[in-house]
Design brief:
Radius of gyration: 32 Å
Organism: Arachis hypogaea
Low-confidence stretches: 194-202, 213-237
Oligomer: single chain
InterPro entries: Peptidase_aspartic_dom_sf
CATH topology of the domain at 65-165 and 194-236: Cathepsin D, subunit A, domain 1
Number of strands: 11
Shape: elongated
CATH architecture of the domain at 65-165 and 194-236: Beta Barrel
Strand content: 25-35%
Strand order of the largest sheet: 3-7-6-1-2-8
Mean pLDDT: 78
Protein name: Aspartic peptidase DDI1-type domain-containing protein
Number of helices: 7
C-alpha cells in the first residue's frame, strides 16, 4: 500500500535531515579545479575573436546622408535621405513656395520621434525631383510643420528604392543607379570644398539645372492634374 507513497518537502529541509548529504553537496559546489602545467585550454570562437583582436574598428556616427536636387525652379542643397522613413515628406510652406496645387486628401497620420502624432495635410503625386540630369517621379506627404533650413525635404525609402540607392556608411557614400548611370555623393566632403574645386562647372550646371527644371518640370506638371483629377473622381465614386 505504501510502496508508491511520495511526500513532497522542500529540498533544503531534506538536506537538513541528511547531514552526510549536506557535506557532500558542499564539497561538490565549492570544489575548484586547478590548472596544471602544460594543459591546453580550448576556447570558443567568440573568446578567440576577443583575445586575437579581430573585431572591426569601432567608428562614430558619420552623420546624415543627403543629396543636392531641384524641384521646379527651387534648388535644394541637402535633401535628407532617410532609410527610416516610409514616406517622402515635404512641409506645407515649401509646397506653397513651389506653387504645387494638386493636393490630394489623405488619412495618413504621422508618428514623430517624440511619440506624438500629426495628421498629414495631404499628398502630392508625381512631383519631379531632379538629380543631376535625371528626373525622378516622387510622391510627397505634406505636413504642416516648420521648414528646416538644412534639410527642407525628407526623401524616404520610396524615393531611394526608385533611385536604386546604395549606401556605404563607412565611406559616407551614397550612390544612385538611374538607368545605366551611377551618381555618387559623398557626405564627408563639404559642399564648399566641392565648389572651390570645380567652381565654374558647378555654376554652369546650377544655371542649366534651373532652366531645364523650369521648362521640363512645368510641362510635365501640366499633364499631371488631369491624371490626378481622374484618380480623385474614381476614389470618390
Amino acid at each position: 500500500m505504501f510502496a508508491s507513497f511520495h511526500v513532497n518537502i522542500p529540498f533544503i529541509k531534506a538536506l537538513q535531515q541528511m547531514p552526510s548529504y549536506i557535506k557532500y553537496m558542499k564539497e561538490l559546489l565549492t570544489r575548484k579545479s586547478s590548472l596544471k602545467g602544460g594543459q591546453t585550454i580550448v576556447m570558443n570562437k567568440e573568446c578567440s575573436a576577443l583575445i586575437q583582436t579581430e573585431l572591426p574598428t569601432k567608428r562614430k556616427d558619420p552623420g546624415s546622408f543627403h543629396i543636392p536636387c531641384a524641384i521646379r525652379e527651387t534648388l535644394i542643397d541637402k535633401g535628407l535621405c532617410d532609410l527610416g522613413a516610409s514616406i517622402n515628406l515635404m512641409p506645407l510652406s515649401l509646397m506653397k513656395k513651389l506653387q504645387i496645387n494638386e493636393l490630394m486628401p489623405t488619412d495618413v497620420v504621422i508618428r514623430l520621434a517624440d511619440k506624438t502624432q500629426k495628421q498629414a495635410v495631404g499628398v502630392v503625386e508625381n512631383v519631379l525631383v531632379k538629380v543631376e540630369n535625371y528626373f525622378l517621379s516622387t510622391d510627397f506627404v505634406i505636413l504642416e510643420m516648420e521648414e528646416s533650413p538644412i534639410h527642407p525635404i525628407i526623401l524616404g525609402r520610396p524615393f531611394l528604392a526608385t533611385a536604386r540607392a546604395l549606401i556605404d556608411v563607412e565611406r559616407g557614400e551614397l550612390i544612385l543607379r538611374i538607368h545605366d548611370e551611377q551618381l555618387a555623393f559623398n557626405i564627408f566632403k563639404p559642399s564648399q570644398e566641392v565648389d572651390q574645386e570645380n567652381k565654374e562647372p558647378r555654376e554652369n550646371h546650377n544655371k542649366a539645372l534651373v532652366e531645364e527644371t523650369s521648362i521640363e518640370a512645368q510641362n510635365v506638371h501640366l499633364r499631371i492634374p488631369w491624371l490626378i483629377s481622374k484618380t480623385a473622381r474614381r476614389c470618390h465614386s
